[in-house]
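Troubleshooting log. The previous structure file for this entry was overwritten by mistake, so regenerating from the original sequence record. Sequence copied from the archived sheet and checked twice against the printout by T.R.
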Amino acid sequence: PVVASLSAEIDSYANELAKKNHPESRCIGDVKKLDKTTIEAWISAAYLAGAIVAIIVAGFPCKGTSRLRKTGGYQAPNLDDKQSNLFYEIPRIRDEVSRAIRALQPPNTPKMKLRIIVENVIIDDKKTLREVSDKLGCEPLRIEAGRLLAANRERIYWCDYCLLYTSDAADERS
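Regenerated output below.
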């Protein structure tokens, strides 16, 4: 079960959906406002609830990294794009959560594990793909999301843990 949850989203519909799926979740709005105090409160609540894993699930705007940026001769600046550069919030938050996990661990309790999963569109620019992978500390997996979701789109996922996928997973949706 989810014992402590934060969401960072400026879109009101996405916030409504997150609240519906996770009523215990606290929405902080703009991800840039996710600060040390909020993260420490989240990790403290997770430790008090007996959590053994903190999971950061994230995505970042694809405007600067999408294949579509090349249409009409337009070349977006990849992660320099004003929306796509929100990517840099992910490693910032991961590092702050990791620090909070170490600092707030109660005595005689196992250390909480930190895991991340990050999603984006296929990134053709090899330099950008390498930068994202290096900053996240893991290599991407290319997945045809249509086998698992309603949208038939290829996506890239970075996970710092092992994902097991079987053909049964797609069949279970039906």
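The chain has a mean pLDDT of 83. Archived copy saved in two places this time.
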